[in-house]
Specification:
Elements (H helix, E strand, L loop, with lengths): L3 E5 L28 H28 L3 H12 L6 H18 L11 E5 L12 E10 L9 E6 L11 E8 L2 E3 L2 E5 L2 E7 L7 E3 L6 E2 L8 E6 L3 E7 L6 E7 L4 E3 L5 E8 L1 E8 L8 E6 L3 E8 L24
Parallel strand pairs: 3-18, 5-8, 7-13
Antiparallel strand pairs: 1-2, 3-15, 4-14, 4-16, 5-6, 8-11, 9-10, 9-12, 12-13, 16-17
Length: 329
């Protein structure tokens, strides 16, 4: 079907039948409402069929009463109708020639049928909602720290991976001189809130470039926030308390999950396709990757991380320098 539908209406005087009963007219008598593209297509088809019927029958009525000029004019107009069925053309063409011959042989000037072009939106393919699956399994390893907190990320290899929707994360809490949760995964461009629930000051910062930041000194009950615009792990530290450390993993994919203390994980709402699966763990020297084909729900993936990363020689302050132990933090 063309992107433009022809809505045809012929505006000529309405003839009357011999019995004196008025002909119903040569314009579409039905008031068809149009509320959707389907309604518009139906209306255009009905108007075209009515035009064909009108020219065919009104030409015959004119012939029967001896109005050969009127019959020739209507049938000639019918023959100029776009995409006229061949069988109808074969029926009407000889009749039109006979009517024109009886009318004098020369076609009288006549207006073309009025054509109103009704724009219509292009046909759109039916939207198909992709089937989504849960992809899960178990992470093992992590050395003496165990697999808990590992972050599993899926990225497409058979097409682009969409950007995750940015969110506001409430919140990374500082409580009992700890970050709670110790590890948290967030989508790229997420805004993370940091809230001090201790009865003392904190100064949260990170040296993990390019996501490095410094929230400054803030008191009990106060809150700060930070946007994380680059994917990857971000180590959290406190410039006052050297014992405090935590991690934020920033994902560039919407398909990610964190393993629980036993290593179990589930990535939800994954479309079918080919993926590369990556596992990050704070104590692993590598981020293992493997290829995964998703065609249904998966719950038995087995992933292994090492626990070979060694703790740094010292915990730096926000200038990257070693802290002075006599200060008691």
């Amino acid at each position: 079907m063309s992107m433009m539908l022809l809505a045809l209406t012929v505006f000529t005087a309405a003839p009357r039948v011999d019995a004196g009963v008025p002909w119903q007219g040569e314009s579409m008598p039905l008031q068809l409402s149009v509320r959707s593209p389907e309604d518009l297509a139906f209306k255009a088809a009905a108007e075209r069929q009515y035009l064909v019927f009108n020219l065919l029958t009104s030409g015959k009525l004119a012939w029967d009463r001896g109005d050969f000029e009127g019959a020739a004019t209507r049938w000639e107009s019918l023959l100029r109708t776009p995409s006229l069925p061949p069988e109808l053309d074969a029926l009407v063409r000889p009749l039109a020639k006979q009517a024109r011959a009886r009318a004098g042989g020369d076609a009288a000037p006549m207006p073309e049928p009025t054509v109103t072009m009704t724009p219509m939106e292009p046909e759109r393919p039916e939207k198909v909602t992709p089937q989504l699956f849960a992809v899960g399994g178990v992470v093992t390893g992590g050395g003496s720290h165990g697999p808990g907190g590992a972050v599993v990320v899926l990225r497409r290899t058979d097409g682009p991976t969409p950007k995750p929707r940015a969110t506001r994360v409430k919140a990374v809490v500082q409580k009992d001189k700890r970050f709670m949760p110790h590890v948290i995964a967030v989508p790229v461009a997420a805004t993370v809130e940091f809230r001090n629930d201790d009865e003392l000051f904190h100064n949260v910062f990170s040296l993990s470039k390019p996501n490095d930041f410094d929230l400054g000194l803030y008191k009990s009950g106060a809150q700060r926030e930070q946007v994380f615009g680059t994917p990857g792990p971000v180590q959290l530290l406190c410039n006052i308390h050297a014992s405090m450390n935590g991690w934020i993993f920033v994902s560039d994919s919407p398909w990610y999950a964190q393993a629980d203390a036993s290593g179990r994980f589930t990535v939800k709402n994954v479309p079918a396709g080919q993926y590369e699966l990556e596992v990050w763990h704070e104590w692993s020297t590598q981020s293992p990757k493997q290829q995964v084909k998703v065609s249904g729900a998966m719950s038995e993936l087995s992933l292994v991380v090492d626990g070979e990363r060694r703790a740094p020689a010292f915990v730096p302050d926000k200038s990257g320098k070693q802290r002075q132990p006599q200060l008691g933090y």
